[in-house]
């Protein structure tokens, strides 16, 4: 059961990621990314992280992707033109990515002390997680809330029309 | 049927994470739309989160999952600010193509 679910959703993940690369319209890429994130939530659940699975759906597939889709529609982003782009990206970038993937795969496959994940292993429940989060790591948690607040202010300050800023007339 | 183990080895999760990360890099390098480039960065963040959850499962450590929680919060802040920057750039340059946003290019 665990094996079937893993293959199903790992397949969805990879298919979504490849589809993100192949699509030329940003809205299709955004929808593929939602598929990837939702499948990752199921994989988190298989790994026993129930809180993170829900947070992944709410924060990533919900909030962040709504923001992306909203911006794509707001800016009326069309189909991207196929340019060759930077030549350095093709000449150096692609072999570098292949080398990086091979390196990571080699390191991972040579790690022997990794166990197996079975469905019978206990799920980290939210109470256990929140005990650490709200007691031992209370200060970092509060600091991130300040970070979010600053991010909201920064986003508003950046996105609103500034004084004397020229808008491009269509 | 002894090729397929009964339980999923954690190595497979890590390999999936590495593959997703590499696909994110490929998207970052080859996509020409700035929004899609930004989506590739989100994909890379998600791939790293998957490794964090895998290692947290391996060592039964709650702190690994909490790290993912913090990464999610920072990613949310990053998405908000990044998309605001994209809107500001679009307002000035009227394009989303990363080839045409080249004011700082030598």
Task: Write the topology of this structure.
The complex is a heterodimer of chains A (170) and B (106).
Chain A: H1 2-22, H2 26-46, H3 50-74, H4 87-109, E1 116-117, H5 126-136, H6 138-159
Helix pairs in contact in A: 1-2, 2-3
Chain B: E1 8-9, H1 10-30, H2 34-58, H3 62-93
Please tell me about this protein's structure.
The complex is a heterodimer of chains A (170) and B (106). Chain A is mainly alpha-helical. Among the domains of chain A are: 1-80, Up-down Bundle (Four Helix Bundle (Hemerythrin (Met), subunit A)); 125-161. Chain A has helices at 2-22, 26-46, 50-74, 87-109, 126-136, 138-159, and one strand spanning 116-117. In chain A, α2 runs antiparallel to α3. The mean pLDDT of chain A is 85. The termini of chain B are far apart. Chain B has one domain (10-93): Helix Hairpins (Orthogonal Bundle). Chain B has helices at 10-30, 34-58, 62-93, and one strand at 8-9. Chain B has 3 helices and 1 strand; from the N terminus they run βααα. Chain B is mostly helical and 106 residues long. At the A-B interface, α1, α2, α3, α4 and β1 of A face β1, α1, α2 and α3 of B. β1 (116-117) of chain A pairs antiparallel with β1 of chain B.
